[in-house]
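Tutorial, part two.
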Amino acid sequence: MIVVVDTSILLPLLQPGTSVPKPPAGIDPGSATRRIEHLIDELDAQRAVALVPTPVLSELLIRADASAADLLSRLAALRVFRISPFDERAAIECAMLLAARLRSTRKSMPATRATVKFDHQIVAIAKIHGAIRIYSDNRDDFEPICKPAGIEVVGLWELPEPPVDPQPSLPLDAPDPAGKGGLSPLPRRRPVPG
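Running the prediction step on this input gives:
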């Protein structure tokens, strides 16, 4: 399976503390990194390839606080990722996507020309590699391009949270709160009023 990961998903993973879009009601805003890490673990377990298009890499390097070398080494350490260039095949696909979109819509495009072309480059790279999905929080920009290309767009808050460990560890090795070196006694259960 091949997927594409956009800057809005990669940056919080590679640079913790990065601001993320506000989650829908009832979703823990602190769960963003856990969701992304779980996605990467799942992709890795499936032996999937997560493409990082060079336009995304460029945006990452611009927006990251870390040095380019540090960011690239952190990205390379995660074996699921593969950097994918905007090459001749992608340029041809991008031109076809842009031409089709311009023919199909008579109204102006919602973003600047540069942004539109940038997003089309990312989708073109995804399409020539047979990607089935793009993970991005820029749904409004990507969906009009991805839908006709048969590529699904999945946002950050649509990612599942990692499952809760069904058998959490017990605090058996907790030090004695009295400081006598032994293990602390297990808390007593209160009788349930009947």
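The helical segments are 7-14, 32-45, 54-63, 68-77, 88-104, 113-128, 139-149. In part three we will examine how such features are distributed along the chain.
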